[in-house]
Amino acid sequence: MSAVLAPALVRVCSIGDLTAERGSAALIGDEQVALFLLRDGSVHAVSNLDPFSDANVISRGIVGTRKDAPTVASPMHKQVFDLRTGACVETQGKPQADLQVWQVHLEDGDVHLVLPASTAREEH
């Protein structure tokens, strides 16, 4: 019987290191994560890898909204992604491709990402 590993929290930065409505990139293990602080104080974390261009550029995207969803538009080909789910809401005629999303935990002014147990085991 294998043991079930709990998810782990990894501190990424201070909330003060982020600028509202602008992306920041962080390296977690060997993956680039794009962090976005929104005006309402929420922080979202998605893959920095644009699945349409295969370039790590999402953190340089333009933050906006579609209906009530916070979004980021890729600076490469302008596909728009929901920051809450990673779903591409405007594919610009391309096949559907989404961003990976990380759960964010804010504590004492710090931004932490919740890593799946398998990733956490690889980090240590």
Describe this structure in words.
The chain is mostly beta strands. The protein has one helix at 117-123; strands at residues 8-14, 23-28, 31-37, 43-47, 49-50, 55-56, 62-66, 69-73, 80-82, 88-90, 101-107, 110-115. The strands form three sheets. Strands 1-12-11-4-3-2 form a six-stranded antiparallel sheet. A four-stranded antiparallel sheet has the order 7-8-9-10, with no helix packed on it. A hairpin with a 2-residue loop joins strand 7 and strand 8.
- What strand order characterises the main sheet? 1-12-11-4-3-2
How much of the residues is beta strand, in percent? over 45%
User: Largest sheet, if any?
Assistant: 6 strands, antiparallel
* Dominant shape: globular
Mean pLDDT: 91
Helical segment count: 1
Helix/strand order: EEEEEEEEEEEEH
Show unreliable segments. Answer: 119-124
Helix content: under 10%
Strands, total number:
12
**Radius of gyration using CA atoms only:** 15 Å
Return the structural class.
mainly beta
Distance between the termini: 22 Å
In short:
With 124 residues, this protein is mainly beta. Helices cover 6% and strands 47% of the residues.
Per-chain topology:
Elements: E1 8-14, E2 23-28, E3 31-37, E4 43-47, E5 49-50, E6 55-56, E7 62-66, E8 69-73, E9 80-82, E10 88-90, E11 101-107, E12 110-115, H1 117-123
Antiparallel strand pairs: 1-12, 2-3, 3-4, 4-11, 5-6, 7-8, 8-9, 9-10, 11-12
Which terms would index this structure?
124 residues; 47% strand; disordered C terminus
